[in-house]
Structures
1.
Amino acid sequence: MSETRESQNQPVPPKKDRIVVIGINTILGELMIGHLEESSKIDEFWAIDLHAPKRRKFQKMHFLKMDLIEPAADAKLAEKLKEIGATIVVHSALKNNPTLNWVYAHELEVIGTLNIVSACKAANVRKVVFCSTTAVYGASPKNPNYISEAHPLDRHPHAHFVRDKVEAEKQVATLHEDAPQILLTILRFCLIVGPQSKNYFTELFRRRVVPTLLGYDPLMQFIHESDAEAALEKAVFEDYRGTFNIVGKGVIPLSYALREASKWGFPVAPFIAYPLMQILWNLQLAAVPGKLLDYFRFLWVADGEKAKEVMNFVPKLTSKDAFVEFAKVNRLQEYQWAQ
């Protein structure tokens, strides 16, 4: 009898969260599932995407193939989340790069996000972590030196790549009013650099000659992918309600980045550069479409103080250190390719 009473008085261990990552073929999706695979905090997790990961095999992961924009995708996803018993959903499906197929990108990011939000409400998950970008603030000469989370999102983005992300974030933000019981964390990452990162900026800097805008030398902000992973891990395994800029400390001028990466800057007058880059982009001869050139012309530097104060998140590498590390790896890869 005493043994029975003692066993009844034993504290019940807390249930482990059941984590679902939606969008695993983006840089943040890859970093998240890689971290979960190595984490001792969970025994299993679920991943949803159209394509399974190719770089490595996962022992803890249950992969579910799903198209987020097919008819009734929200109902199908809600059913899966209920079946899993999902408590945390990580939405990391926003595309790393602009694409010529902007109609599909719009459907994936905006309609897909709408379906995810609807499914999370129907399944009554405990927490949603949404991976966004500081690009949603827009690049403008009117921006403050450091943009806080309270700054309004870009009202009229020229580029589809940014416009879709603004609309997707607005969809996610409806959870604040429609489902206040769900803890919502929005992480706005600045440019992510590192050996795994492939975005419009890193692709531009993998070319020998980098076009620049004549008369402009904007300040750039970076975060290393290892720090981005650490911030995402904190948001998943700890609870922080609200929106947070995830950025490296400090900034570097674009001209410094060019010198550090041993690249040649090719200045072009803005009135020529915008239409020319758009034409080259349409022909897939440029890494950046003309409509994104504002981000290589004007300021869009975000303030990371809120993440420091609330999340206790301080990146190990500054913007400068993160870029220097990226440049070293990039030079090594270029040397190896030349051999």
Note: The domain at 2-193+224-248+303-316 is CATH 3.40.50.720 (Rossmann fold).
2.
Amino acid sequence: MSAISVGWTEKVTPASRVLDPLGIWTDHLYIQDEFTRGITSVTRRARYYTLLSYYFYRRFKEKEDISFDRLEKLLILVAVTHHGWDLNAREIQNVFDRYTMAKKWDQNSSSFDLTPEIRKYGYSYYNRQMERLECAWETLDGRRIVTTICGELASTLGEVPPDILKKDRIPVEDVASIQFLCPCTVKENEKERDILEKLFFGFIRKENRESDEDWVIDYESFEKFMSTGDIKLTFNYPAENEDDFHIMRRGTLLLFLKIIGKTAPSENEFRRYVWDAVYFLQNRGNEEFIEYGRLESFRYYWEILHLNVYYVYTLEKLLEAIQHAVRSQSCVTRDELFEMMNLEDSVRALEDELGLERDTATLKGVSEAIWSINKKDRTDLTVRFNEASVYDELEESGYEDVLRWTFFMLSLLSRRLKQLEGDMARGSPSRLYIKNLLSPAMLNMNLLSFGKNLINTVIDTHLMVSMLRWSEQNTQNWIFTEEDGVLQYARLTPFEARPRDNRWPSIRSILEDLDFLETSNKRIYLTRRGEEWLSKVERT
């Protein structure tokens, strides 16, 4: 019997989002965190970094009685009013709580109330990143460190009058006097932009190794880069110190500029353009190959990341399919689930399509058959079977077809894994860790047996992960439960598998704020600034 009983869950069926339902994100997606330190999936606007610097410097260096809650509300108010109350305006996307606060305000009022509560995401999401960017942090013994970088960035914002910070209601004329807070004005604030670009691209150094506060902008190395193109792009992996992390972020941002410059991706599909550029080294639009030169070492690690992105998506898509099969019948046994998901038919169809002898198929055999059809050891966009096309099939498949495309994807990934696994730094005891699931023993297992094993492992892992989270964190994370061998659906809102690479949208948004990118006619291009920086890297 499952540790989570069916009868009990009827009273507490979870409605919230399911995050990492198989507990495999940490084991597979760590590269995107390591190579973008200071940037997360939810830190998409450059102005918040400046606003936090302003707060930390004023509060802890100048000892002013200042509230970040009030600063954030002022930013929201300015953003909304500056763009004519158009809450969907492109210029104020990813400004937190603009909808919440706009509902509290009357456009025609002569003043605006700043007392309503907000979720304070501006602080909670960006605060940790200020430490990763060597700006400000709190030590274990309670000291607040505010670095020279933080002070320089704070000084670029302009002065928010103290009387405005104290008011619970802000007159319209006061709002007009602080329009410089709007996130869209970063491009116009040359001093702010200059500090931020040096910060994000890693032109920083610790001037005095004995003092935590002596992190400074490295103007000398920046000027050298601008005049000669000389820039450090070598790093240790795994990172040995903070300098390695800053260079890894630098290279990633330059890599993104390179990809945009070579592909000019459509706005709606830009993530897929990035995937194909790092994984296949190709322009998704015309299948032309891309040479990365000095940025190749960064692309290589992002290729490893996207191998894992495909892998995690495939397993979560299988979990989603299991969920829909269980949901369609309310409750099923595992043997019934194998039949509902067309396990045997999927194996037969795969054998017929690839010309494999009946009842002999293995993932290794499928991989070899694909290789003989593709006639290339490394997949790309020109071959019949590649990870991008199989991903598209998985995305559109109903639960009864998911297994067939899961077998295809795992076979493709197993070959790419052999080429990359020597540089995959982490390991894991999880049965769903990529090196364990795609081990030689599993690759040589009869495909029908492998399919049953895979479905059972996905089910068992989800039940165990959700049970542990319930026990340790009181988190109701389960999609289905099992009692006496019967699976029962247990959610109000179904789980939906999605690709788990989440840094590219933030990188794009920040680089747009800093005037490296622009969007025109629904395509993304480099600005002159972006072209200039990239050209300096490419000419040396």
Note: The radius of gyration is 26 Å.
3.
Amino acid sequence: MHPISLGFQSALHALAAEDGVAGATSGLPWPLIILGVVGLILLIIFYFIFGAASLWIRAYTSGTPVSIFAIVGMRFRQINALVIVTARITARKAGLDIPTDDLEAHYMAGGHVMRVVTALIAANKANIALTFKQACAMDLAGRDVLDAVQTSVNPKVIDVPAKESGQQTIDGVAGNGIQLKVKARVTVRTNLDRLVGGATEMTIVARVGQGIVTTIGAAKNHMEVLENPKSISKTVLESGLDAGTAFEILSIDIADILVGENIGARLDTDKAEAAKKVAQAEAEQRRAMAVAREQEMVALVAENRAKVVLAEAEIPMAIADAFRKGNLGIMDYYSLRNIQSDTDMRNAIANPDQTKPDRPQN
């Protein structure tokens, strides 16, 4: 054996002896351990190289060469190399040359690489101007870029009102008070230039519904709308309701118009009922005021009667005082009593049911 090998083995045994670990403990000599570690490292390297090699061969045979070092680098950067290579091959086969770095950047940003590539292919086949940068911006903004391209090629129909709203119809009231219930269908096409930052379908639904209500309300008679439903479509289309949205309105078709309630008559009835309640409240107020006034008058009469009683109570005192001063004679007194008796008799004859009033005793 070579002297260097002997020296190396002696050094290993010395290190094992110092650490208290004997070679017999593991049952394996140190050269085999070192060989196992080297084999494990080679196995890991082979795993990365073999996986990268299979993708490299796939890309090379597809006419879309991708550097094997780039594939290995994707693995270390935790990028799904299969997705990137497949997307690049798919784009290249469709006549699009998208750099690998751009695909990796979009993947690391959280985008859907294959969806973007598929959308670009669909746009290219339909002669729609769409760049990779625009498609990535749409995808990262949360838009379904593939659906947007498909809608640009094949316009979609939106129901107004939307089924999710729970409404069955859009209701409007004409000038004569008749309610009309309308269902409409709006055909739209995606405007890719306004997809990022543009309003969604719900804005289209809300604006069309507003236009329908406005058009019905502007009609003097509900028959005008029933005779010419196109007036609704024409008015709404001329309003430019797709401004600021991600769609372009192609047409608005009135699917159905139903005659609803006579809102005007119901409002008039409610108004009359309200006026009736107001009149009743005012009448009740006047009645209460009259009752209060009557009670005031009763109290006033009682007060005045009490004053009369008080005044009559002073008469005997005045007569007595007149006797003492010699201003009233006995004959004058009897004449006064005769007059009082005659007056009481006449009152009893005139009012037989009336109780005889109490007179003070003179």
Note: The beta strands are 156-160, 170-173, 178-190, 247-262.
4.
Amino acid sequence: MDKGSGEGAIVRRAGEGTSNHAFDLPRTIIMQSGDTGGSMSHWIESVPVGAGPPMHVHHREQEMFRILSGQFRFWCAGEVQDLSDGDTVLIPAGAPHTFKNVGTGDGQLLITMTPGGAEGFFIEAESRGLHPARDMAEIVEIASRYNVEFVGPPPA
């Protein structure tokens, strides 16, 4: 994998990236913040039916989701949007948001964070073997270091 020197393109071929399974959700981190001079991070995440994170806020980053496959419901700042294959949503920094796979099969999201760095949350959570059912206090503490605040439960 090219790390990029700022002088040329950073290329990731299909299947390249860093595998991560924090919270039992398979993701491939395609570009880390360190690869992009801090400007962004970029990953693909597989989401089982009914799954989604707690309501949360990124205090520094905007988060863009492209639905690669599946059907998802997004909640953002009091609004609800149903999105499917090919749809894109941009969540502004500071907006409470979450999503849930409301389809009949696993879905896949392409996620971009600007600026980068939020991927560190997943890397650290996986390295510690954390799971929300038993380790939520530690997850909240780690999240705060990445400018993430949990503000409510996952959607019903």
Note: The chain has two helices and eleven strands.
